[in-house]
Amino acid sequence: MANSTAPQQTPSPTLARSIGLWSAMAVVIGSTIGSGIFRSPAGIADKLPGPLPMLMAWVAGGIFAICGALTIAELASAIPKTGGIYVFLKEGWSDRTAFTFGWSQFAMIRASSLGGISITCAEYFFRVMGWDLGDPMPVRYTAAGAILLTAFFNIRGAKIGAAFTNFTVLAKYGGLLFIVIVAFAWGVPNNGVAHYTPMLPPGSLSISAFGLALVSTLWAFDGWADVSNNAGEIRDPQKNLPKALIGGTLLVMAIYLAANLAYLSVLTIDEMRVSRLVAADVAQRVIGPAGVVFVSVTVMISTFGTLNAVLFTSPRIFFAMAADGLFFKPVAAVHPTWGTPWVAIAMTATLGAIFVLTRSFEQLADAFVTAFLPFYFLAVASIFRLRKRADYQPTFRVPLYPVVPLLFMAAVLYLLANALIAESSRWQTAGVLGVCLVGIPMYHLTVGRKR
């Protein structure tokens, strides 16, 4: 087990610290706001068909993300090294735990994330163009192309990747805010307030259904921790990382809650349950056909920006692993001209393109959320071990410690237990967790033998 949080070996001194506070906060928002807020509300309303239970699921997802962000902010301020959660697992637990996380990222998590996001981006590209395709393969080929294109942007330089993220964040947040404003402006005068009652219809809330709905909100909220992967490229990371993590997550939570309240001011809960793209249906009712086009363009920009943000952050995990000797050494290569981990980016993009050509959106999204939860749990739990070390010196400390990290950990255990108990998700959850656990023997058969 790693026995010091002091810098031992910087993964690569040639990764320039070129990312400022606002760009880092844009990465948090850009990594988080993707397809979830446009696709997930219908599924959540279907599982919890009452205004209060549905909004409770979104609030719970936001609290979950905030508790995680506060804890990761402390860890990142103490260990501002490239790799994020991988680094926290390595320092707080062991090389084996960090390797298992990296294995899961390689075998499932990251490619599933890229695949799910890019499919949604491609679907709305074809919708904007007015092409209705019966064959899903053109959508998948376009999705793979989008992954490779954003990989090129990020290989060309961290500043280019961050600048593109900044632009798409303004477009997606502004577009969503516009939808919220026009929905309230139309809904309130047209008695939309009546859609909030009854707040708790009979049979609209159960523990099992709430857990399954919460998984859907986590797909929408996920991404809040990704900026920690770029800690080695952020200027003054001890100060800027906590500010970016907390500020970005709060802004996402605010717009998500506003969006769901706005949707409900235009549509009833029963209408939301059957709306595959609730934002488009809201825009159709409020603005007409032009509103559907606007929403489609917003979703396309939103998902393409998230795709760029994911490829801006996640390859740093493989880069850090390779620099530590826990992955193939060439993956730690830095481009001599552009100063980016180009091999790690290219490898991540290639895996995402392969996954998107072979799996459906549902398979990709469910696998991603389930596989990431155990490592979120361990990363947050590492704070209890690291705080016992004399050389652990964070510049930011979690408020209400230990309640905040414990609340996050309890939520993860509840979600995993609920997914394993529920008949509809039991075997899929077990299969995903099984793939993650394969990382343990893989460690001992490969790099672990030398350690």
TrEMBL record:
Gene3D superfamilies per UniProt: Amino acid/polyamine transporter I
Subcellular location, principal: membrane
Coiled-coil portions: none
An MF annotation (GO) of this entry: L-amino acid transmembrane transporter activity
Keywords of the record: Membrane, Transmembrane, Transmembrane helix
Species the sequence originates in: Pseudogemmatithrix spongiicola
Subcellular compartments: Membrane
Record protein name field: Amino acid permease
Pfam family, one: AA_permease_2
Spans through the membrane: 19-38, 58-79, 100-126, 138-155, 167-187, 207-225, 245-266, 286-311, 342-361, 367-386, 398-421, 427-445
Membrane topology note: Multi-pass membrane protein
One cellular component term from this protein's GO annotations in UniProt: membrane
